[in-house]
């Protein structure tokens, strides 16, 4: 199979109202995490977004922290960062699959999330992907978040979400299903 050597990247969206991002990073491999953060911060800055940063112990905790922030804080979007390197056991598969699945489920509930958790075979691959002057996967995750925020604002009439699952914010999947089948209360 031929390798693709060219990648198309969308231009960053422009915003009329301020954008507030939360970067949630698992710094297990500190040098990799620092490069991912640098790339994400630079992309956010280029788009005029403000950024807060929190650290969690590992990639499995990233979706949980984002879910808590989605309920309890007021961010427009989230950038998930970290690195999982294959080891000798199946733990790698669990961490990769479950962290990705958690982020996907939160995204399907309405949160704007860019997934920058690297899943690689070795440290050399991680270094190339994290390098802000290289593949810049941290910047790519921030850009993905910004694009989702732009879509959300466009489709919501530029209303800034308060938090998923709250009456005044985007509806969660469970409550929406109850409204569709008539079992929702209030």
Automatic annotation (TrEMBL):
<comment type="function">
    <text>Catalyzes the formation of 6,7-dimethyl-8-ribityllumazine by condensation of 5-amino-6-(D-ribitylamino)uracil with 3,4-dihydroxy-2-butanone 4-phosphate. This is the penultimate step in the biosynthesis of riboflavin.</text>
</comment>
<feature type="binding site">
    <location>
        <begin position="83"/>
        <end position="85"/>
    </location>
    <ligand>
        <name>5-amino-6-(D-ribitylamino)uracil</name>
    </ligand>
</feature>
<dbReference type="GO" id="GO:0000906">
    <property type="term" value="F:6,7-dimethyl-8-ribityllumazine synthase activity"/>
</dbReference>
<dbReference type="GO" id="GO:0005829">
    <property type="term" value="C:cytosol"/>
</dbReference>
<keyword id="KW-0686">Riboflavin biosynthesis</keyword>
<protein>
    <recommendedName>
        <fullName>6,7-dimethyl-8-ribityllumazine synthase</fullName>
        <ecNumber>2.5.1.78</ecNumber>
    </recommendedName>
</protein>
<comment type="pathway">
    <text>Cofactor biosynthesis; riboflavin biosynthesis; riboflavin from 2-hydroxy-3-oxobutyl phosphate and 5-amino-6-(D-ribitylamino)uracil: step 1/2.</text>
</comment>
<dbReference type="GO" id="GO:0009349">
    <property type="term" value="C:riboflavin synthase complex"/>
</dbReference>
<feature type="binding site">
    <location>
        <position position="115"/>
    </location>
    <ligand>
        <name>5-amino-6-(D-ribitylamino)uracil</name>
    </ligand>
</feature>
<dbReference type="InterPro" id="IPR036467">
    <property type="entry name" value="LS/RS_sf"/>
</dbReference>
<dbReference type="InterPro" id="IPR034964">
    <property type="entry name" value="LS"/>
</dbReference>
<feature type="binding site">
    <location>
        <begin position="59"/>
        <end position="61"/>
    </location>
    <ligand>
        <name>5-amino-6-(D-ribitylamino)uracil</name>
    </ligand>
</feature>
<feature type="binding site">
    <location>
        <position position="129"/>
    </location>
    <ligand>
        <name>(2S)-2-hydroxy-3-oxobutyl phosphate</name>
    </ligand>
</feature>
<dbReference type="Pfam" id="PF00885">
    <property type="entry name" value="DMRL_synthase"/>
</dbReference>
<comment type="similarity">
    <text>Belongs to the DMRL synthase family.</text>
</comment>
<keyword id="KW-0808">Transferase</keyword>
<feature type="active site" description="Proton donor">
    <location>
        <position position="91"/>
    </location>
</feature>
<feature type="binding site">
    <location>
        <position position="28"/>
    </location>
    <ligand>
        <name>5-amino-6-(D-ribitylamino)uracil</name>
    </ligand>
</feature>
<feature type="binding site">
    <location>
        <begin position="88"/>
        <end position="89"/>
    </location>
    <ligand>
        <name>(2S)-2-hydroxy-3-oxobutyl phosphate</name>
    </ligand>
</feature>
<dbReference type="InterPro" id="IPR002180">
    <property type="entry name" value="LS/RS"/>
</dbReference>
<dbReference type="GO" id="GO:0009231">
    <property type="term" value="P:riboflavin biosynthetic process"/>
</dbReference>
């Amino acid at each position: 199979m031929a390798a693709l050597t060219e990648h198309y990247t969308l231009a960053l969206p422009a915003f009329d109202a301020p954008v507030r991002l939360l970067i949630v990073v698992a710094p297990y491999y500190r040098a990799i995490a620092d490069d991912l953060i640098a790339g994400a911060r630079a992309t956010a800055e280029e788009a005029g977004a403000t950024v807060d940063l929190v650290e969690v112990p590992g990639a499995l905790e990233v979706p949980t922290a984002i879910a808590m922030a989605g309920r309890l804080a007021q961010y427009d979007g989230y950038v998930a960062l970290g690195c999982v390197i294959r080891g000798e056991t199946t733990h790698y598969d669990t961490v990769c699959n479950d962290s990705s699945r958690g982020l996907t489920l939160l995204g399907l509930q309405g949160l704007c999330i860019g997934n920058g958790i690297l899943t690689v075979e070795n440290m050399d691959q991680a270094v190339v992907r994290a390098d802000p002057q290289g593949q810049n996967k941290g910047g790519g995750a921030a850009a993905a978040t910004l694009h989702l925020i732009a879509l959300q604002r466009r489709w919501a009439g530029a209303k800034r979400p308060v938090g998923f699952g709250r009456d005044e914010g985007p509806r969660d999947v469970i409550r929406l299903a109850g409204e569709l089948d008539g079992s929702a209360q209030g």
